Amino acid sequence: MLDFYRRKIEYVRISVTDRCNLRCRYCMPADGVEKLSHADILSFEEIVRVVRALAQLGIRKVRLTGGEPLLRRGVVDLVREIKAVEGIERVALTTNGVLLADLAEELRAAGLDGVNISLDTLAEDAFYDITRRSASLLSVVRQGMEAALAAGLKTKLNCVPLKGVNEAELVSLAALAKEHPIDVRFIELMPIGMAKEAGLTGVPTAEVRRILEESFGALVPVVKEALTGPAACFRPAGFRGALGFIDALEHKFCSSCNRVRLTAEGYLKLCLALDAGLDLRTLLRAGADDAALFRKLRQVIAEKPREHRFEAAGGAGEEKRRMYQIGG
């Protein structure tokens, strides 16, 4: 469907849990967070019902997120049910990769099309520093990446460049896209997580690009596929995969934003930075029928805000939820 600003909304990101088996410094406090109870999060039946209504409105791509979505028991069955919804063309999942090796084949068989693996470093000491978990898990994540490729899943790596933490590794991370048919995307540090409290600062995207161009030569633009997100993608000579850059602060892409988000507790968010949206959990559990659900979704999505206001911190309507509460 089209919103009031004539943007075609066709992509929903659905968080299936707020729980995670890592404690990345820019995302969660070291002691973790107070977890939602099982009754507070949407059931799979409720999620699929929302997806069916969204598909009728023109949503064609679904991405499952968390927390860590592979921690949610039965997630493979959820993938299968969502992929079977009429109108849904692509189902993907964002994961930290720790549990991926054991589930990649099952996920692919259930209809999963692709995975995005969050990986900020290839060095064990930095992995421990960032995730606050055992450095030995780095090899487990690498095995998950290999399993995803072997299963035939479209595989992408998400890296957040951090000053003084992984700056020296940006070239080696990018080189994974030269050696393997994967996309490595560098994502600007967002002002919505725990980065400020952790004393972390992002590396500007322009600096990341300069570093990579010095190492690999010209970054040749790649024509974007349908139903993709906001990454600007490039392929240097000799690369099997591509490099992507997502910088919502330096270069706003709100005018082409095609997505909405559904939190684990059932709040439909229209913009990552703003609290505008709809409490679907209450609507569903109050007995709304499918027609009422469709009408409310159509109404609220049409009102998707024109643009984020990250640059005006503290403004009216600013999102107060942390990233782990929204969904990665």
Automatic annotation (TrEMBL):
| EC number(s) per entry | 4.1.99.22
Q: What does this protein do?
A: Catalyzes the cyclization of GTP to (8S)-3',8-cyclo-7,8-dihydroguanosine 5'-triphosphate.
Family, according to the entry, reads as follows:
Belongs to the radical SAM superfamily. MoaA family.
| Binding positions for S-adenosyl-L-methionine per the UniProt entry | 26, 67, 118, 190
UniProt-recorded name of the protein = GTP 3',8-cyclase
Cofactor dependence? [4Fe-4S] cluster
A Pfam family annotated for this UniProt entry: Mob_synth_C
The molecular function GO annotations come to:
4 iron, 4 sulfur cluster binding; cyclic pyranopterin monophosphate synthase activity; GTP 3',8'-cyclase activity; GTP binding; metal ion binding; S-adenosyl-L-methionine binding
Q: Which InterPro entries match?
A: Aldolase_TIM (IPR013785), Elp3/MiaA/NifB-like_rSAM (IPR006638), MoaA (IPR013483), MoaA-like (IPR040064), MoaA_NifB_PqqE_Fe-S-bd_CS (IPR000385), MoaA_twitch (IPR010505), MoCo_biosynth_MoaA/MoaC (IPR050105), rSAM (IPR007197)
Origin species, per record, is Selenomonas sputigena (strain ATCC 35185 / DSM 20758 / CCUG 44933 / VPI D19B-28)
The answer to whether keyword GTP-binding applies is yes
Q: Which PANTHER family match?
A: MOLYBDENUM COFACTOR BIOSYNTHESIS PROTEIN 1, MOLYBDOPTERIN COFACTOR SYNTHESIS PROTEIN A
